[in-house]
Design goal:
Transcription Regulator spoIIAA, 56% helix
Length: 622
């Protein structure tokens, strides 16, 4: 076995060695602008998402810088920014609520290992088994769950709730405890966020003179930058307001509070944790995380590959490398107290609009986050929780995909079933169980489709071919549709009420009838000895196999019975078979009749011309 070229192998694993050769000042400036712009979006989001994950704010910053550095070395899509996201933060809270931060770090470490293994084994194709309707239903339900979980922050309420239903139940029970200052501040933040988001979409008409055109260009870029940096602007303004109204006793606003300053020291992920007075071993921690050990990395992979595809601009995407890069980000991040991370579509869109050139933009974003951890954390004390809740709610609103319902209704109404099923199950039973239910519905629909393959039988009595029945199977024929197909063809063979009276069983043996065709082990041009005599060649079933690539064992057994039934007064001809299909047929049928398209005319013509002879019909040997 030839070993791979080490240089090529290293270049595939670390794409930085490919694009760094041509890295120049112009490219660096583009990446720097994109890196700074993304950081202004990332920092307030990461603090808010840490709260969503049930962690202290500094953990959001811990999870924000490692991904940028690692992905810059191993990633292939310049636009992607790896860091905390609303969806993975919610899943992290789902599996680690009521425990310690050690559980989230271990979940991050385990997710990285699962993703690395999936990438190295090239298991990215498994993502294809999760359909777009399921993903849409899952993300829409997650967005509503996330938004619902932040309502208590918007209203200044304090109660414990984990699921969508328990959140709304707690809201109705504690609605009388609503704090007016927090409510007014959150409302103002939401209005400001939505208003500033519209700024980046404002387009000013270019004036005719050159001097005015430059001024308009500056104003256009200022509006765009204000819209992109809206999260940072709103959080800073809310913190200023909170500082101005701050009181030592009876503070009117619920604040973020003290944030642990400084950079996280590199350390091995925790393999035991203390919750209360109880020390939990590695096995106990993994047992508590349960299905999250697969659900969290799977959701991360789906999101990351989808974002990379969206920004690939038609270029070939190395999905395997993307999975490996994401796994490395989580694996290394666990050594810096990170919780599970993946790419964010919102931040990736900001990066793309900022003129990013290479994945090196992650370096600049990571450096800014590190400076924030080292210098600015004491000033985060006055950030109101209502402002962070407003940031989260406004960030997840676009995740609710209503338009897909209209598209499915027009194109494929049956796909509305997994969409609605996933959405309802996620809200009623929980995000992770809902995703599993959605995949289960997809599997059932897949089996339903396979049990009804498009095998319409056509009666051919035109052109230069004698009358016969023909089918054109496409793709693969599997166990789910075996009995249905055999039953359908058997009913056709045994029907006595055919308007064409095409199926007539003839007795006798043609002692001198020799048919030139393809038989005897599917070898083309070999004479067929002992061909059943038929008065009309419409007793022939021609299976056109040019688009058939395989049959499974169960379907082959049905084929064996089918040929036996049609051999009593007819025959089955396999036209344009692939080598694999020929081999599969020969394994269950002795001397299957195979031919190409040119030989089919001779076979059908010879069957017709042999109609005046008396033949003894013997079943094809099976």
């Amino acid at each position: 076995m030839k070993l791979p070229d080490p240089k090529l192998l290293v270049g595939n694993i670390f794409p930085i060695f490919s694009w760094a050769k041509n890295y120049d000042l112009g490219t660096a400036v583009g990446d720097l602008i994109a890196g700074i712009t993304v950081a202004l979006t990332l920092i307030p989001q990461s603090i808010a998402y840490a709260s969503l994950a049930g962690l202290e704010p500094q953990y959001g910053l811990y999870a924000s810088f490692v991904g940028g550095f690692v992905y810059a070395v191993m990633g292939t899509c310049p636009q992607i920014n790896i860091g905390p996201t609303a969806l993975l933060s919610l899943l992290t809270f789902t599996y680690t609520s009521g425990t310690s931060p050690d559980f989230t770090v271990l979940l991050c470490f385990a997710s990285g290992i699962v993703q690395l293994v999936a990438g190295m084994l090239r298991l990215g194709f498994l993502v294809e088994f999760v359909s777009l309707p399921v993903v849409s239903g899952f993300t829409s339900a997650a967005a509503l769950t996330i938004a619902s979980s932040q309502i208590k922050g918007l209203l200044g309420l304090k109660f414990s709730a984990e699921s969508f239903i328990s959140t709304w139940k707690g809201l109705f029970e504690h609605i009388g405890d609503t704090r007016l200052p927090d409510t007014l501040l959150s409302l103002a933040c939401c209005i400001l966020l939505l208003g500033m988001k519209a700024l980046k979409d404002i387009h000013i008409k270019d004036p005719e003179d050159e001097k005015s055109r430059k001024g308009v260009m500056v104003l256009q870029k200022s509006l765009w930058f204000s819209g992109v940096a809206r999260n940072a602007v709103v959080v800073v303004l809310a913190a200023v307001v909170a500082f101005c109204v701050y009181l030592d006793v009876g503070d009117p606003l619920i604040l973020t509070g003290k944030i642990t300053p400084g950079l996280p020291m590199p350390q091995a992920p925790p393999f035991h944790a203390t919750v209360g007075n109880e020390t939990i071993s590695t096995g106990g921690m993994l047992a508590h995380l349960g299905s999250g050990l697969l659900v969290v990395p799977l959701v991360g992979i789906i999101s990351n590959v989808a974002i990379a595809k969206a920004f690939s601009n038609g270029k070939t995407l190395d999905a395997t490398q993307e999975i490996i890069a994401l796994g490395a980000c989580n694996l290394v991040g666990a050594f810096f107290r990170s919780f599970p991370v993946n790419g964010s579509f919102t931040r990736s869109a900001v990066s793309d609009a900022s003129g990013v050139r290479t994945p090196a933009a992650g370096f600049y974003t990571g450096i800014i986050v590190l400076l924030t951890l080292a210098i600015l954390t004491p000033y985060f004390y006055f950030i109101p929780r209502a402002a962070l809740s407003a940031v989260i709610v406004c960030a997840v609103l676009h995740m609710v995909d209503i338009a897909i319902v209209k598209k499915l209704w027009k194109s494929s109404r049956l796909d509305i079933i997994p969409l609605v099923g996933t959405f309802v199950c996620c809200l009623a039973l929980g995000i992770e169980i809902g995703l599993i239910c959605g995949v289960g519905v997809d599997v059932l629909l897949l089996l339903y489709y396979h049990s009804r393959p498009p095998l319409d039988v056509k009666y051919v009595d035109e052109g230069n071919l004698p009358p016969h029945y023909a089918i054109h199977p496409v793709g693969g024929l599997h166990f789910a549709g075996a009995e249905r197909v055999r039953s359908k063809l058997s009913q056709l063979r045994n029907s006595k009420a055919s308007t064409l009276q095409a199926l007539t069983v003839i007795s006798g043996l043609n002692t001198d009838g020799v048919l030139n065709g393809a038989a005897n082990g599917c070898s083309n041009g070999t004479p067929v000895i002992g061909m059943p005599d038929l008065r009309r060649s419409s007793s022939v079933l021609v299976v056109h196999c040019d688009s058939l690539y395989r049959m499974d064992y169960t379907f082959l057994q049905s084929v064996k019975m089918l040929v036996g039934e049609w051999s009593r007064g007819g025959m089955v001809v396999w036209c344009d078979t692939r080598p694999l299909v020929k081999e599969q047929l020969s394994s269950v049928i002795a001397d299957p009749i195979c031919c190409d398209r040119d030989q089919l005319l001779r076979i059908l013509t010879d069957v017709t011309s042999s109609g005046d002879h008396h033949l003894a019909v013997s079943d094809t040997q099976l």
